[in-house]
């Protein structure tokens, strides 16, 4: 499996490995073989659509985007899983996460130590979102701020 495939699989599994803001973990602590097992288990369970959003707490657009995705919206897919990924120190990420109300069962704030995962995924600006359907198929990459209705249409187009 190529490094790019591992990184994409890693992101998909991370959305299901929810990390509460009181326990932000480094992506380096997870085993890639375990990630593959998690992906297969999640596919078998028929779990929800996923968004992996690379953010920076110092980015104003990222604040808006995070709040917008965490808010209720009439077109938001039921059970949508969200991962907000940042390369800032875990303490800074905890402070950022504490500004929002969210369900830890469906939302994770993840520390990307030294931006390794962002580089692997080709992220060059914030926010950058990767959208995946329930089978883990990449639907769309959105660079920059986007309204929730625009983001969610990609999930509704696959139903």
Automatic annotation (TrEMBL):
Gene3D superfamilies, per the entry: Glutaredoxin
Source species: Neolewinella agarilytica
Record-annotated Thioredoxin-like fold domain positions: 53-148
Protein name listed in UniProt: Thioredoxin-like fold domain-containing protein
UniProt cross-references to SUPFAM superfamilies, sorted A to Z: Thioredoxin-like
InterPro entries per record: Thioredoxin-like_fold (IPR012336), Thioredoxin-like_sf (IPR036249)
